Amino acid sequence: MPFKPMVAAGIERVLNTFLYREGALKPARQRLHGKVLRVVLQEFSSPFVLAFSERQVDVLGEWEGEADCSVITQLRVLPKLRDRQQLTALIRSGELEVQGDIQVVQNLVSLMDLAEFDPAEILAPWTGDIAAEGISKFLRGGARFLQHGFQRQQRYVAEVLTEEWRLAPGALEVAWFAEETAAVERAADALAKRLDKLEGK
């Protein structure tokens, strides 16, 4: 089975699970009914198309018709779209390019912001509520532990390179070097002006 249809099916499953399960999200979903959003990810050669209907969202790899809106971005930007406060900043910074009806993107972002992405809700039908919540907390704690460990190792490597092995200069040394370089540049400019003045006489 080709890679792209598998990715599209996975995205469709996740979106339908989180966005179309709760009845409380129906008013937000109604704003997207009948809309088509083309998502161009720079990591993939062809776009994904999200076709919204009353009961589900279809994620397609091929679409012949016109899309109401097209979004061009990168994979790393997609998690930031869950926060509707960041949408304008992402567009201004160029990380997210929107062509067509921007209202479609705004409605999708607000729907994703309202939806709760909790793995415990997915696990609960198979494991029970208590076990699902325990597994979810364990996974969140493990992710935080790994992230903290990675940041600590990054800090250790930076300190070893700058303090112990002296392979890279520290932040204060870089600032001092920049100031000294600027002072030498100013002195050279002053000397050049003085020489020009003397040559003019």
Which terms would index this structure?
201 residues; alpha+beta; Nonspecific Lipid-transfer Protein, Chain A; 2 domains; five-stranded mixed sheet; 5 strands; 12% strand; Ubiquinone biosynthesis accessory factor UbiJ; UbiJ; SCP2_sterol-bd_dom_sf; cytoplasm
Overall description:
- By secondary structure, the protein is of the alpha+beta class.
- The chain is 58% helix and 12% strand.
- The chain has 2 domains: 114 residues, Nonspecific Lipid-transfer Protein, Chain A; 28 residues.
- Strands 3-2-1-4-5 form a 5-stranded mixed beta sheet.
- InterPro entries: SCP2_sterol-bd_dom (IPR003033), SCP2_sterol-bd_dom_sf (IPR036527), UbiJ (IPR038989).
- Its main location: cytoplasm.
- This is Ubiquinone biosynthesis accessory factor UbiJ.
Counting helices, strands and paired strands, the structural category is alpha+beta
User: Roughly how many Å apart are the termini?
Assistant: 83 Å
Number of strands: 5
Question: What are the secondary-structure elements, in order, as H or E?
Answer: HHEEEEHEHHHH
- Please tell me the total number of domains: 2
Mean pLDDT: 87
Identify low-pLDDT runs. none
- With strands numbered from the N-terminus, the spatial order across the biggest sheet is 3-2-1-4-5
- The global form is extended
The CATH C-level class name of the largest domain: Alpha Beta
Instruction: Round the Cα radius of gyration to an integer and report it.
Output: 27 Å
% residues in beta strands: 5-15%
Helical coverage, percent range: 55-70%
CATH superfamily of the largest domain: SCP2 sterol-binding domain
Q: Helix segment count?
A: 7
Q: Would you tell me which CATH topology of the largest domain applies?
A: Nonspecific Lipid-transfer Protein, Chain A
